[in-house]
Write a structure and sequence with these properties.
The complex is a heterodimer of chains A (114) and B (115). Chain A is built from no helices and eleven strands. Chain A is mostly beta strands and 114 residues long. Chain B is mainly beta and 115 residues long. Helix content of chain B is 0%, strand content 54%. In chain B, strand 5 and strand 6 form a beta hairpin. The radius of gyration of chain B is 14 Å and the shape is globular. The chains are: A mainly beta (114), B mainly beta (115). At the A-B interface, strand 4, strand 5, strand 9 and strand 10 of A face strand 5, strand 6 and strand 10 of B.
């Protein structure tokens, strides 16, 4: 089974801090995704990556950046955290050309910005 | 533009009742897939089913069944004889070949099954 692991389940940070959310998958998937989940809005795509060092903006990239230095690891970075970035963050992965394949998700990181 | 609408934000039922979750989608593409995911309280999204745009057969898996109707752009999900373990948030999602690997999610429906 594919395992997608997010480094933290819960995280509390302060406004203005630089925040790193880490995600690791163990199935050699080319594609990795970062979503944020807010009540009533479902999941919205922040960024995705289809290969090492490659990235594309999703629907809501403002205030975020990403890093993919190794195939198995995809990091989401909040350059200067703000309270409106308090949310649940979910990482997912799928193989290349996997548009018709289910994405595999991690358990999520619930981030609070105070 | 692509859109997935789950009009029901929350449904509460008593155990053993049936519950149907609605999903309506919008796309101009002819080639696409629809998915249902379950998110239990633990947080991880669990894949339940996918259906491609050329296959309108309904599907049954145990107590779960899905009704896909292209004519009404709907992909509804029914849980028969609900159980407490079915309590979760359920998401419908759309994947289009033209969009690569990006999914468009609905807002989710929270199902609460009371004993």
């Amino acid at each position: 089974d594919v395992k997608v692991t997010q480094s933290s389940r819960y995280l509390v940070k302060r406004t203005g801090e630089k925040v790193f959310l880490e995600c690791v998958q163990d199935m050699d998937h080319e594609n990795m995704f970062w979503y944020r989940q807010d009540p009533g809005l479902g999941l919205r795509l922040i960024y995705f990556s289809y290969d090492v060092k490659m990235k594309e903006k999703g629907d809501i990239p403002e205030g975020y950046s990403v890093s993919r230095e190794k195939k198995e690891r995809f990091s989401l970075i909040l350059e200067s955290a703000s309270t409106n970035q308090t949310s649940m963050y979910l990482c997912a992965s799928t193989r290349s050309q996997g548009w018709n394949q289910p994405q595999h998700f991690g358990d999520g990181t619930r981030l609070s910005i105070l | 533009a692509q859109k997935v609408t789950q009009a029901q934000t929350e449904i509460s039922v008593v155990e053993k009742e049936d519950v149907t979750l609605d999903c309506v989608y919008e796309t101009r593409d002819t080639t696409y897939y629809l998915f249902w995911y379950k998110q239990p309280p633990s947080g991880e999204l669990v894949f339940l089913i996918r259906r491609n745009s050329f296959d309108e057969q309904n599907e049954i898996s145990g107590r779960y069944s899905w009704n896909f109707q292209k004519s009404t752009s709907s992909f509804n999900f029914t849980i028969t004889a609900s159980q407490v373990v079915d309590s979760a948030v359920y998401f419908c999602a759309l994947s289009r070949q033209a969009a690569g690997n990006k999914l468009t999610f609905g807002g989710g429906t929270r199902v609460l099954v009371k004993p």
